[in-house]
Write a structure and sequence with these properties.
heterodimer, A: 259 residues, mainly alpha, B: 244 residues, alpha/beta, six-stranded mixed beta sheet, globular
Chain lengths: 259, 244
């Protein structure tokens, strides 16, 4: 069996890596990663907006944003894919490539989930941070931009990476609308070979696992680094704001900028 | 400078501030004291409208703070009121220097270079020039509070409010913060301080307001207040303070 796996990989590595590209659309791992990266990258600014809207004191912003989040969280991703796949072409009157359909769906879906991460990050900050910014004369949005979001997003980096890992796994659903990504490529191989489904899907599982596992490790490392910095440096947590816990005798870090 | 006129505030049915009628004159240092829960912090937080009031009027430098106004105007008004918090509330993701220059640059449109020069001058005043590039978590509580004072001063406010500025500090760090506050008072800054530091009140304050249950029940010069308070509640408060 080990030999069969090796044989399949060595025969099809290019298909698994980039799909039919350059003779056809980009596929394989490249498409999966591109889809995930674009998905989370485009979702990110929306997620910040949705989070701000959910925390807004204005109902006009808060209610629709909350409604959107509750709706999206209550619907399976596959359903949303079907909705976009069948309805968007009707709405705009022309066909849409599968890749774009999947990307739009991911952006909507991930924006909602990420917005909850961002919102949690904002709410976890001590209230005094907002008070201090407002007392200095910053507007609500100014305080968010210069004081709250830089801290909240930094603290939430590990969760954002985790969300990226989920997104990679969600791209497999693109298979049902023929998006040429990694699962699609594996299925093509399986259809050619016919007799080796176990080996083919074993390879597929190993690839997904190694990509996601490396990213999870990255998230863990980030988490440790942030924890270390909080203890002695950059982003202090509310508890460390008290005098008792702040180390008194640490010299400032050497930096190039001079006052 | 700061004038309360029949100010009332409720949390639901609970009266937090009751018919506050008092004034801090320009150049005056007023110390607000009283038992915990008496409304001192609430009172000082109404001055820059971190807390809303239900009735009455409050003037800062001739402007009605709790009048209906646009967010922009309220922000501008707040930028003229220096406020120092019990928990310092420095921005942990910014260096000491950036903590101080953020608001002058972003709100007043001061140039980066000018803002830095100003910040360094203020750090010199609070004795922390060597910490300009440090981050808040690397400073002691007393140092953080001195930076917070410098940060508030960077907006060049005509008056400073202090909400229990030394209550979160270890005892040996209280002195350095009070020294900075004393020098501010000596320079003629209008100050309203919620504090339990009776030595500071005795030496620096022009007037002491004693609060209980949301009311200012005694207003007196510190010499008189500490020697012979009139109100029995104030007498009990002072004897409790001295008792240990």
């Amino acid at each position: 069996m080990a030999y069969a796996v090796f044989q399949i990989v060595s025969d099809n590595w290019l298909l698994l890596l980039v799909g039919q590209y350059p003779n056809g659309p980009l596929g394989g791992i490249a498409a999966t990663l591109l889809l995930s990266l674009l998905g989370i990258g485009l979702a990110f600014p929306f997620s910040v907006l949705v989070a701000l809207a959910r925390l807004s004191s204005w109902r006009v912003l808060r209610w629709p944003a909350t409604g959107l989040v509750y709706t999206m969280r209550g619907i399976p991703l596959l359903m949303i894919i079907f909705w976009v796949y069948f309805l968007v072409p009707l709405a705009i009157g022309q066909t849409v490539p599968g890749f774009v359909t999947m990307l739009c769906t991911l952006v909507i879906y991930e924006a909602v989930f990420l917005s909850e991460v961002v919102r949690a990050g904002i709410k976890a900050l001590p209230k005094g941070q907002m008070d201090a910014a407002r007392a200095l004369g910053h507007s609500h949005l100014g305080a968010m931009r210069f004081v709250i979001l830089p801290q909240a997003l930094y603290n939430m980096l590990p969760s954002i990476v985790s969300q990226f890992v989920s997104t990679i796994q969600e791209t497999t659903l693109g298979y049902v609308i023929n998006v040429p990504e990694l699962t699609f490529a594996a299925n093509q191989i399986n259809n050619q070979l016919l007799t080796r489904p176990f080996e083919v899907f074993f390879i597929l599982a190993v690839i997904y696992f190694s990509v996601c596992w490396s990213l999870t490790q990255l998230a863990n490392r980030l988490e440790r680094r942030i924890a270390a910095k909080r203890a002695g440096g950059l982003a202090a947590m509310p508890k460390q704001m008290t005098a008792r816990q702040a180390p008194a005798a640490i010299e400032p870090p050497a930096r190039e900028a001079s006052p | 400078m700061i004038k309360f006129s029949h100010v009332n505030k409720f949390y639901g049915d609970y009266p937090a501030l009751v018919d506050i009628d008092a004034e801090v004159k320009r150049g005056e240092v007023v110390v607000v004291c009283g038992p915990s829960g008496s409304g001192k912090s609430t009172l000082i937080r109404t001055v820059n409208r971190l807390e809303e009031i239900q009735s009455g009027e409050l003037f800062f430098d001739g402007r009605n703070v709790h009048a209906k106004m646009s967010g922009t105007n309220l922000n501008r008004l707040r930028s003229h009121i220096g406020f120092v918090f019990q928990n310092f509330n420095l921005f942990p993701h910014l260096s000491v220097l950036d903590n101080i220059t953020l608001s002058p640059i972003r709100i007043n449109g001061v140039g980066r270079k000018d803002a830095r020069d100003k910040a360094m001058a203020l750090l010199e005043r609070v004795g922390l020039t060597s910490k300009a590039l440090a981050y808040p978590a690397q400073l002691s509580g007393g140092q953080q509070q001195r930076v917070a004072i410098a940060r508030a001063l960077a907006m060049e406010p005509p008056a400073m409010l202090f909400d229990e500025p030394t209550s979160a500090l270890d005892p040996e760090m209280v002195g350095e913060v009070l020294t900075v506050m004393r020098s501010l008072a000596n320079d003629g800054m209008t100050m309203m301080c919620v504090t339990h530091e009776m030595g500071f009140a005795r030496d620096v304050a022009d007037c002491v307001w004693f609060m209980d249950a949301g009311q200012i029940i005694e207003t007196a010069e510190p010499a008189k207040f500490f020697r012979k308070p009139e109100h029995p509640r104030a007498q009990r408060f002072l004897s409790d303070l001295r008792g240990h």
